[in-house]
Amino acid sequence: MATFEVKKSGDGEMFNLKAGNGEVIGTSEVYNSRASLENGIASVKKNAPEAPIENQTVENFEKKTCPKFEVFTDKAGKARFRLKARNGEIILASQGYASNQSCLAGIESVKKNAAEATITEIA
């Protein structure tokens, strides 16, 4: 079963969404308050399953409205995604993937796992 692993980070808290196999499929920003972190998790759970994919790696890509997944290429040439909430804020970001195909598989994993994921506290 997928989990949102919550842990302290600097002056706040953040979470990783992990698939059932333990792989991190997305990471949040650092939140200043517990309420904000819980809102972030709720937003991922709500938005991920239905969010369309805006693939910015293809020429003349179709712009989507938020909430959406954005697929892009980072400065190192790796494929990445970010999930944006209705207000345009990034609520989840991926690691770098070697290919767009792997990145799209990561998005499908988020879509499949986020809604039912449990919350686990990491010391």
Short description:
It is built from two helices and eight strands, in the order βββαββββαβ.
Question: Which features would summarize this protein structure in a list?
Answer:
four-stranded mixed β-sheet, globular, 123 residues, 23% helix, single chain, PH-domain like, alpha/beta
Describe the structure.
It is built from two helices and eight strands, in the order βββαββββαβ. The protein has a single domain, classed as PH-domain like, CATH 2.30.29.80. β6 (79-84) and β7 (90-93) form a beta hairpin. The strands form two sheets. It has a four-stranded mixed β-sheet, covered by helices on one side. A four-stranded mixed β-sheet has the order 4-5-6-7, with helices on one face. By secondary structure, the chain is an alpha/beta fold. It has helices at 34-47, 100-113, and strands spanning 3-9, 12-18, 24-27, 53-55, 68-73, 79-84, 90-93, 118-121. The protein is 23% helix and 33% strand. The radius of gyration is 14 Å and the shape is globular. The longest helix has 14 residues, at 34-47.
- What's the structural domain tally? 1
Class per helix and strand makeup: alpha/beta
Radius of gyration: 14 Å
> What portion of residues belong to β-strands?
25-35%
Give me the strand/helix succession. Answer: EEEHEEEEHE
- Give the tally of β-strands: 8
Architecture in CATH? Roll
Main β-sheet, spatial strand arrangement: 3-2-1-8
- Major sheet summary line: 4 strands, mixed
CATH topology: PH-domain like
Distance between the termini: 20 Å
Shape: globular
